[in-house]
Every structure is written in C-alpha cells, then in structure tokens.
Design goal:
4-stranded antiparallel β-sheet, 155 residues, 6-stranded mixed β-sheet, alpha+beta, Nucleoside Triphosphate Pyrophosphohydrolase, 3 helices
Length: 155
C-alpha cells in the first residue's frame, strides 16, 4: 500500500472515506498497489482516481507505517510519498466507491479533521507535518479479532 501527502496553498489534501458500516473518516489519498505496478505508479493511479490530480513528480518515501493484526490475520505496510508537483482539478471518481469527498484542509485543522481516522493513519501524518523528518517507520500492533473490539498500540 502507499499513501500520498499533497500540499497546496490551502493546506493538506485529504479524502473522505465511506466505510462499509456507513461511517466516514478522513485520510490522505492512496491505496493498494496492483501487481506489476511500482509503488510510485500505483500511488499516482490511486491519487488520480481519488482526487482527479495527476502527480508529475514525487519525493520519498517520507515514512513507513507497519501494522500487524495477528488475531485478524493481516499485516499492513504503507509507504508514504510527497507530491512535489501535480496538475488537474479536484474531482472524485473512485472506482472502489470508497472516497466520496476531497479537499485541502489547513494545517491547523488537520488534527481535528483526522480525529476519527485510524491511529496508524493520522498519528504518523501529524508527526511528519510537525517536524518534516523523513525516514521513520511507525510500527503498530493491533489486538482483537474484529474492528469494533480492536486496540492499537504503537511499538
């Protein structure tokens, strides 16, 4: 998986994700890298599908996120890159039907906007926005057997 940090004059680009249970949360754009794609190719595709923007130059990875949920049988690894240049207009055309809104959010409002997001999504992003230190890996252990009962601990 890969995530994108896209900054503009009005802040950081976030997308609203509509979950299967009807709840919503905000995150940076990104998603699953298809077989045969490089991380950057897949991230470019995901960003264009979710936001309408075509990223023409990337830097990174800025940081990595790893989460292990043994009770649910999965291990997640996300590589996060920053868009250095991009073009296009904001539109939502997500073929997965998850992203239903996109907007630039001022830096001082990102914490509140991301409050409902999964900890491994918002914690590393807010840390990077605060100190811009690249190269970190954020590791999490997810305990529990369902999303409703899970607890997340940073290691």
């Amino acid at each position: 998986m890969a995530g994108a940090i896209i900054e503009g004059p009005d802040g950081v680009l976030l997308v609203r994700n509509r979950r299967r249970d009807g709840s919503t949360d905000w995150s940076t754009p990104g998603g699953v890298i298809d077989e045969g794609e490089s991380v950057v190719e897949g991230l470019t595709r995901e960003v264009q599908e979710e936001t309408g923007l075509l990223v023409t130059r990337w830097e990174g990875p800025l940081y990595h996120v790893e989460a292990v949920a043994s009770g649910m049988g999965w291990h997640l690894r996300v590589e996060v890159h920053r868009a250095v240049s991009y073009e296009g207009e904001l539109t939502v055309d997500d073929p997965d039907g998850i992203v239903d809104d996109v907007r630039f959010v001022p830096l001082d409002a990102c914490g509140e906007q991301l409050a409902a997001a999964w900890v491994p999504t918002h914690e590393p992003l807010l840390a990077w926005l605060e100190d811009r230190t690249a190269g970190r890996t954020y590791r999490y252990v997810v305990d529990g057997e369902t999303r409703a009962s899970m607890t997340i601990t940073r290691h």
